[in-house]
Design goal:
heterodimer; A: mainly alpha; Cytochrome Bc1 Complex, Chain D, domain 2; two-stranded antiparallel ribbon; 4 helices; globular; B: alpha/beta; Purple Acid Phosphatase, chain A, domain 2; 7-stranded mixed β-sheet; 6-stranded mixed β-sheet; 9 helices
Chain lengths: ~130, ~350
């Protein structure tokens, strides 16, 4: 019992020392997270405009300047050409494999996350419309 | 031609050489201005973007587009008097890309009128083009119509000559459509002066056709669907009663009317581009009269690509031969204030796939 009380007290001291509670964050934290987000968006933009993803020097932006006509707000949707419900990443991989003649990315590949971040950022503010054609 | 399906069917059957099936051109013969012009057609192929991967390897997708256009030209009846190539034969302005592109077009039996695009220019500033294909700007007369080919993809001297460490880097920068470090297209003062002098000898009622790569009006600057000195160029064209501008660059069906000038853009043989209305972050000035192409199906490699031909006969009629998709016809007959699609101009007759968002 005493040991438990001590542990609680120590924890309280530790929290007071760092000022961290689950529901609290500072402006510095916000900036840090925003910087992290922007770094990944920037990497996504670089990948989107590079020939690194495929094998034939074709890049995503050649057909999708500013990621236009990618419609991230409509996913997941029934992708008629694939014949099943698909996510945006399924279409990203389709483009990498077909027009770019490359190797698909794993769903958790940081490059896939970066591409999704860039594509979604270019479409910010557009109302979500899952399933839309 | 009201029934594009018929022509399409004809093209499909053309391989069997059942030829003679003439295209259903149902035109009223109305002369232009005082001097009657002779009816003729010319074809328009644009934006092939032949891309070298390495050595003798090229992107097959883009090769196939140009090959198909070059092949189909030979099956047209009536045979076009010439074909305009609207620019961007190459992707990165390389000699290998030009040579490969010209090889793919070697069976074209009619004269080719070359118009230079930015992808052809910004590596060697037109050196290969002028040596092997055409001057950067020139004019010619054909059956009562005065044609002028412009180099409309020039830009600021500082950007062209002093900004980039190498010619390759300059080419790469210009090749990126959505490049924040890009620079707007221009005809520039020297060429505008040449245009003025060239047109000075042309009567005001002679039909004039301007061939340029960039649209000679302002649509969307971030993608260079834009010519910075378009207003000055339009002012030179203003005194003429019938002016048509045919351009490439935008990889889509796009038409507009500004004063006496009619503008028409053609598809690419390589790949389609989105309409600027689909980029939600910035405003655009896409002409409201344009009925959009169908949203392209990426799973159909040639969808959203194609070529066109133009019938000059008093009015003007343009047939957009869209592959893997319904062909389109836009016409501007005498008395019409602006060009109109013969089938889809009325919003009520449009189809869901024409909605771009």
């Amino acid at each position: 019992m005493i040991r438990k009380a001590c542990a609680v007290a120590l924890l309280a001291v530790a929290i007071a020392a760092t000022g961290v509670r689950a529901d609290e964050f500072t402006k510095e934290d916000l900036k840090k997270w925003d910087d992290a987000f922007r770094t990944v968006v920037k990497e996504g933009e670089r990948l989107f405009h590079s020939s690194d993803l495929g094998k034939n020097s074709v890049s995503c932006d050649m057909c999708h300047p500013n990621a236009a006509n990618t419609h991230p707000e409509t996913y997941p949707k029934f992708q008629k050409q694939i014949g099943k419900m698909s996510g945006l990443r399924d279409m990203i991989n389709w483009c990498i494999q077909n027009p770019q003649q490359g190797v698909p990315l794993a769903a958790d590949d940081p490059r896939m996350v970066a591409l999704e971040a860039y594509i979604t950022w270019e479409r910010r503010g557009v109302k979500l419309a899952p399933g839309k054609h | 031609m009201r029934n594009a399906i018929d022509r399409r069917t004809f093209l499909k059957q053309a391989g069997a050489l059942t030829a003679a099936a003439s295209l259903p051109f149902g035109l009223v013969n109305v002369a232009w201005g005082k001097k009657p012009t002779e009816k003729f057609t010319f074809a328009y192929i644009s934006d092939a973007h032949i891309t070298q991967i390495r050595g003798t390897e090229f992107v097959a997708n883009f090769d196939k587009g140009l090959q198909r256009a070059a092949l189909e030209l030979n099956f047209l009846d009536p045979k076009p008097d010439f074909v305009v190539f609207g620019g961007d034969l190459a992707q990165l302005g390389k000699r290998e890309e030009f040579e490969h592109g010209r090889e793919l077009m070697k069976d074209v039996t009619i004269p080719i009128k070359w118009v230079i695009g930015e992808h052809d220019y910004y590596l060697d500033l037109g050196a290969y083009w002028q040596e092997h294909m055409a001057p950067l700007h020139y004019s010619f007369d054909h059956k009562g119509v005065h044609f002028v080919a412009l180099n409309s993809i020039l830009t600021h001297d500082e950007w062209t000559f002093r900004r980039w460490p190498t010619a390759q880097e300059r080419m790469h920068q210009m090749a990126r459509l959505d490049n924040p470090d890009g620079s707007p297209f221009m005809v520039k003062a020297e060429q505008r002066e040449w245009l003025k002098k060239d047109l000075a000898k042309v009567p005001k009622d002679t039909p004039i056709v301007i061939l340029s790569h960039s649209p000679l009006y302002k649509i969307f600057r971030p993608w260079n669907f834009w010519t910075d000195d378009a207003d000055e160029v339009q002012a030179i064209l203003k005194p003429y009663q019938n002016v048509m501008v045919f351009h490439g660059h935008v990889h889509q069906v796009l038409y507009n009317q500004i004063g006496t000038i009619t503008f028409n853009a053609f598809m690419a043989t390589a790949w389609p581009w989105p309409y600027p209305v689909t980029y939600s972050q910035l405003p655009n000035k896409v002409p409201e009269i344009t009925v959009f192409m169908n949203r392209a199906d990426p799973f159909k490699e040639r969808d959203g690509t194609g070529w066109g031909n133009i019938t000059m006969d008093g009015g003007e009629i343009h047939h957009y031969e869209l592959w893997e998709n319904t062909p389109r016809t836009v016409e501007k007959m005498p008395g019409m204030k602006y060009p109109a699609d013969t089938k889809f101009q009325d919003p009520k007759s449009r189809i869901p796939a024409q909605t771009q968002y």
